[in-house]
Structure formats: C-alpha cells, structure tokens
Write a structure and sequence with these properties.
It is an enzyme of class 2 (transferase). Keywords: ATP-binding, Cytoplasm, Kinase, Nucleotide-binding, Transferase. Its main location: cytoplasm. By secondary structure, this protein is α/β, with parallel strands linked by helices. The chain has one domain: 3-Layer(aba) Sandwich (Rossmann fold), CATH 3.40.50. It has 9 helices and 5 strands. The chain has a 5-stranded parallel β-sheet, with helices on both faces. Helix 1 packs across helix 9, helix 2 packs across helix 3 and helix 2 packs across helix 4. The mean pLDDT is 96. The structure holds adenosine-5'-triphosphate (ATP) and the ligand Nc1ccn([C@@H]2O[C@H](COP(=O)(O)O)[C@@H](O)[C@H]2O)c(=O)n1. The site of adenosine-5'-triphosphate has 17 residues, from helix 1, helix 7 and helix 9.
C-alpha cells in the first residue's frame, strides 16, 4: 500500500512571492520543497550552455528527460536571461511531459511536500489537499524584484522589469499546454498589500485547515 502523502500546491505569476511562501511553509512544516521553475530554467540553461537552439522540441525534451532534481543550482539559474529562455522552452509539450513526470514523482514519494510553479494545482498535483494561487499587482511585483536586485548589488530599471514580467506572464498564461491559471479549488492570495509575514500567516491558516481535514 502507498504511504500517505500531503502536498501543498502553490502557483502564481512571476515574482508574486510564491517561492518565498513555499520556502517558509516547507521550513515551518518540515516538508520537502521543489521550486519547479528551476526545472524549466535548468533545461533552458543546458541548451544555452551548449549553444543549442531554444526552439527544438526534441532536443529540449532530451535535456528535460535527463534532468536530475537533486542538482538544481538556484544561484546559477537565477538570471533574467535564463528565466526568459525558460518560459520559451516551457511552451513545449514534450518538455512539460518529462518535467511533470519528475515533479509528480517528487510529490508522490515524499511524505510532506511543497511544490511551487505555474501548473501545480491544475496539472502536476490536481489532487493536492491544499492549493494556493499567489498574486500581486504587476507594479508591486516589479517593485519587489527591483528591490531584490538592488539589494544584491545589481543594477536594474523598474520600467524594464515591469515590461519583462508582463511579457513572461502573457507567455505563461497564453500558452496552449498547461497555461498559468488558478485551479478551480485554489485559494486566492493577493499579497499586493501584505508583507511577507502577513502572507505567510494567511497561507499557514489555510494549510492548517487542510492538514486537520486530512487527519480527521
Ligand atoms: N508579501 C511580500 N511583500 C514584500 N515582498 C515580498 C513579498 N513576497 C515576496 N516578496 C519579495 O518579492 C521578491 C519575489 O519573490 P519570490 O522570488 O518569492 O517570487 P516568485 O513568485 O517565486 O518568483 P519567480 O516566479 O520569478 O520565481 C523577493 O525579493 C521576495 O523577498
Ligand atoms: N510549473 C512551472 C514552473 C515554471 N514554468 C516556466 O518556467 C519559467 C521560469 O519560472 P520561475 O518560477 O523560475 O520564474 C516561467 O516563466 C514559466 O514559463 C512553468 O511553465 N511551469
């Protein structure tokens, strides 16, 4: 018999704060965390590093099939160019099939997991007992990303960041395969007016309710 698992599914647009929340929740509950955006970024970076095209589905899918989830280097994958390239390879069904299979295996083999991305509640873990769709206005998200880059001693232009976010959101929401959207049973968490602690407490309340239900 398969052991019981509990997955927290978190989705939302770029820089909405879903990764921050996912990490906080995973630390709080002692769960394993997978940032699924890193998996798409890793495929994109593997192609870029080898000088391979970003629009060849067969080549990209081969990279996705060979990806090892244990070796995702967040720092190396964090650049703007890799994020932009990731959203291009993410439109390819064969890439998604390979990555979704690995993401599902992560959720199904560990007892407590938090996965964040764009299609966790809709495609990867449609039966997750708790789903959060984290949003914030595009302006708020751009300001947060801007502050993050400046804090890391980088240079950034707020208007350019806003344009990038909006372009990436449009690609993620407009693609045919697994577009970004809230699952029908997701809780919407708009953090435009919330600081990180307030957003965490709101999310924790929803997870606590789901955990209590799953143990009843
Ligand atoms: N509620 C909040 N209030 C203020 N800042 C926040 C809030 N949530 C997250 N942040 C900050 O916003 C930035 C983006 O957050 P985060 O990286 O978690 O977003 P994300 O949705 O995971 O982004 P991506 O999709 O690009 O991976 C970070 O600098 C984070 O510290
Ligand atoms: N479940 C997911 C996660 C990510 N993507 C795509 O990857 C891009 C990068 O994601 P980040 O969260 O690291 O910014 C993102 O723009 C999506 O195109 C996805 O499709 N599904």
């Amino acid at each position: 018999m398969m052991a019981k698992t509990f997955t927290i599914a978190i989705d939302g647009p770029a820089a909405s704060g879903k990764g921050t929340l996912a990490r906080r929740l995973a630390a709080h509950y002692g769960f394993h965390h997978l940032d699924t955006g890193l998996t798409y970024r890793a495929v994109a970076k593997a192609l870029i590093d080898r000088g391979l095209p970003l629009d060849n589905e067969a080549i990209a899918a081969e990279m996705a099939q060979n990806l090892d989830l244990k070796h995702l280097d967040r720092k190396a994958l964090a650049t703007h160019d890799v994020g932009e390239a990731a959203s291009k390879v993410a439109i390819m069904p064969a890439v998604r099939r390979a990555l979704v299979a690995a993401q599902r295996a992560f959720a199904q083999t560990l007892p407590g997991t938090v996965l964040d991305g764009r299609d966790i509640g809709t495609v990867v873990c449609p039966d997750a007992p708790v789903k959060l769709y984290v949003t914030a206005s595009a302006q708020a998200r751009a300001k947060r990303r801007h502050a993050e880059i400046l804090a890391g001693d980088g240079e950034a232009d707020l208007a350019a960041i806003l344009a990038d976010l909006e372009r990436r959101d449009a690609r993620d929401m407009g693609r045919t395969d697994s577009p970004l959207k809230p699952a029908d049973d997701a809780h919407l968490l708009d953090t435009t007016e919330m600081d990180i602690e307030t957003a965490f407490l709101a999310a924790k309340r929803l997870v606590d309710e789901a955990l209590a239900k799953s143990q009843a």
